[in-house]
Every structure is written in structure tokens, then in C-alpha cells.
Amino acid sequence: MNPSEPVRMIQVGAGAMGLAWLRTIAESPDAEVVGLVDLDIDVARRSAETAGLPDLPTATSLAALADTVAADAVVNVTIPEAHHPVNLEAMSAGFPVLCEKPIAPTVAGALSMVAASEATGRLLMISQSRRYFAGFAELRRLVESLGVVGTVTCEFFKAPHFGGFRERMAHPLLVDMAIHHFDAARHLVGQEPVAVYCQAYNPPWSWYDGDAAATAVFEFSGGAQFVYTGSWCSPGYETSWNGRWRISAQTGSALWDGDGSPTVDMPGRTGTAGEARRAPAVPEQISGALAEFVHALRTGTTPSGEAHGNVLSLAMVESAVQSALTGTRTVIEDVLADAHAQATDAEQHDAVRAVLKSWRDVRETVGLPAR
Ligand SMILES: NC(=O)c1ccc[n+]([C@@H]2O[C@H](COP(=O)([O-])OP(=O)(O)OC[C@H]3O[C@@H](n4cnc5c(N)ncnc54)[C@H](O)[C@@H]3O)[C@@H](O)[C@H]2O)c1
To answer: Which residues form the GFO/IDH/MocA-like oxidoreductase domain (predicted)?
Structure first.
């Protein structure tokens, strides 16, 4: 790949988030969108027009477009249920893929995606856009200086009226939103989830059918506890979309409201308590994911959102839901082992199934430390 040329991308999925991606790629000097695919051709044409790209080639399948335009990569912004077929088709055709979160609706589906990436030898990166905030990058830097982490808390309280599928889901907060906060917690403390106890519930005034509120306590591999509490039907004193964070560690504590710069308090060190540090500018949200993907393609480095490393974020969600349903502490490696067996049984592609069967220990595959 010529580093002086923009990466040519075919985008699949032109809905609400698809429009945001079209605009983001159009604004990037490092990438350009060369084609747009959607099952609904009118949606594709309308989104291309709205993004100021009326002449962008559009089609209803990747195969139709891949033959007519020269491209280097695919960005997948379809619904979660379509991530599997679209990613598989793209990687089988030789494209590296940048895919919207979640990697798949289930951990079994995620493992199948990881195996497909191994079978085809193509990069699959998941865009977890909330990893890319200047304030969050600064918080990570501060946490590294605080010594051993004891407790991490994240509070997330909002009251959006989305309408549509989120108000019909069984676990809208845990499945559609908390994956961002769970993923951020891993990225923040550099430890992996071991087990979770979770209660999910629906406040009496809720406008959601499913459980719009939840509290989960995760144990992490290095001993840290991550306490997450949130609600999607909580009018008043709303937090930011990133949530409100506290990190309690050996030599001090850090706070972040999810919007601005974090603060740190290290007793004994003068001049640090409450001091707001200005977070250095970085490409934020999906621009940050795009920048990391392009960098990975140009340098061959492994991006932080690479699929193997993303599975545990989805496993945190699935384990929290399982704990809420059973009322018991759920062990992450048990969820992974069940998902691996399911994925192997269900896999239709011989090459992908062979990869799934070849994994000695699924924990090792996704980077979960041995107990
Ligand atoms: N990072 C974030 O903060 C964030 C926010 C919103 C949505 N998302 C994610 O973005 C993705 C898309 O969400 P959305 O809100 O744009 O959904 P959407 O329903 O608005 O759009 C999805 C589009 O994909 C198309 N599609 C479905 N299956 C397809 C297939 N097999 N081939 C081609 N096109 C297909 C649909 O026709 C639709 O136009 C989801 O994974 C969602 O979780 C992320």
C-alpha cells in the first residue's frame, strides 16, 4: 500500500451510522470512499447524496461493486446480524475490514469472525469508537502513574427516547450501550475480565420493554474490581455518553466526567490534587478508529481494536446478561468455552471450522490470562 495515497474503501451499510462514516472518510486525508453498498439501493443513493457524494458508485452487494471499482479495504456499517456474512465475504475477497461494534451479536459469532480472519489472513478490526477521546487517552496516562489499581467505577445515566429496536430489546443498556464502557474499562486498566455478578432491572416508569438499568461488578485479572451502574431511563443529572469514571489506585485517585479533561489527586504530591490537565488533541470517535486502521494497513502493526482482542469486550456483555438471568456469578472463561463449542458446531465454512478446531485453548486465542 502506497502511504502517500489515500486508502480506497468500499463502505457496506448506509443507514444512520453509515452516513457518519461517509462524512468521516470524506474528511480524512488518509482515506477515500470509492463505493457504497446497501441492501436498500435507495438508502445508499440518498446517503451518498446527503454526504455530498452524488456520483459515488452504489450497489446492493459487495460482489457487484468489487468487480467494478478498485479498492483496498472494506468498512462494515451494517446491523450486527449482518456483520458475519459481510465480513466473511469481504475477507474472502481479500479485503482487510474495519467493522462497527459489536463484532457479532454473540460471542460464538465473534469467535467465528476471528477464525475467518485467521483463515483468510486478512485484518479484521472492530471500531470501538469510545476508545478514541482525548480525555480518555489522558485518563489512561494518569492511571498508569497511579500504581496498582483497586477499584474502577463507571456511572452512566441518560434518558433517551430512541423509539425503534432499542425499546423492544430484552437488555438494551447492557447489549447496545454498555459494551462501550466495558471495552473502555479493559483498555483503561490493561487487565482482562475474569468474572461478573450483574443485576438488570427495569424501573417502573421505564419506556423500554426490556431491562433499561443494570449494575454489574466485574473481577479483573490483575485484581481490580470494575463496578458499572447505569440506566437508560434516568431523567435529570444525566452523565455524558462516556459515563462518569473514578479510578481508585495505590497512590491516588483519578476522576473523569467523560467530556473534559480528567483530574487526579495523589496525596503527598504537591500541586496535583484537582488539577485539570488539558488533554492533548487526538482524532476522536470513529475518526480515531479510521486513523488507527489506516496506520495498521500502512505499517503492518496490530491495531488495538483487532478482532482477537475485541472478543472479551463482547464476552463481558454476554456474561453480564447471563449473570442477570441466572442470578449467579458468571465466569468469563466458561462463557468462552461454551461459545467456542457452539461456534465450531455451527460453522458452515470448512476453512473457518478447521481454524476453530485448531485452537488449543480459546482463552489463549482471545488473550485471557490463565487462572
Ligand atoms: N459507535 C457508535 O457509537 C455507534 C452508534 C450507532 C450505531 N453503531 C453501530 O453501527 C452499526 C449500524 O448501525 P445503524 O444505526 O447505522 O443501523 P441502521 O439500521 O440505521 O443501518 C444499517 C444499514 O445496513 C443495511 N444492511 C443490513 N444488512 C446488510 C447487508 N447484508 N448488506 C448490505 N447492507 C445491509 C441496512 O439496509 C441499513 O441501511 C451497528 O453495528 C451499530 O451497533 C455504532
So the answer is: 137-253
Domain identity same for 117 and 11: yes
Contact 277, 260 (CB under 8 A): no
In this structure, what C-alpha cell is assigned to residue 46?
440518498
Average pLDDT of the segment spanning 117-141:
95
The predicted structure's pLDDT at residue 164: 87
pLDDT for residue 270: 59
Closest-CA residue, ligand 1 atom 3, reads 129
Q: Which of 11, 12, 17, 180 to mutate to test the pocket of ligand 1 (most atoms within 8 A of CB)?
A: 17
Beta-carbon contacts of residue 173 (< 8 Å; ≥ 6 apart): 156, 200, 211, 212, 213, 214, 230, 231, 232
Using pLDDT thresholds of 50, 70 and 90, give the confidence band for residue 206: very high
Residue 2: Cβ-neighbour burial (10 angstroms; 0-12, 13-18, 19+): exposed
Helix, strand, coil % over all residues of the chain, rounded to 5: 40, 20, 35
**Residue 122: which domain range?**
7-130+286-306
Domain count across the chain? 2
- Residues 208, 112: one domain? no
Sequence letter at residue 191: Q
Do both 121 and 161 map to the same domain?
no
What's the gap in Å between 22 CA and the centre of ligand 1?
A: 13
Q: Are residues 139 and 259 in the same domain?
A: yes
Average pLDDT over residues 361-366: 97
In sequence order, what DSSP letters do the residues of 5-40 get, joined into one string?
SPEEEEEE--SHHHHHHHHHHHH-TTEEEEEEE-SS
Mean pLDDT of the chain: 95
Residue with cell 459515563: 243
Q: How far is the CA of 47 from the centre of ligand 1 (A)?
A: 13
Query: Which tens digit of pLDDT belongs to each residue from 90-124?
Result: 999 999 999 999 999 999 999 999 999 999 999 99
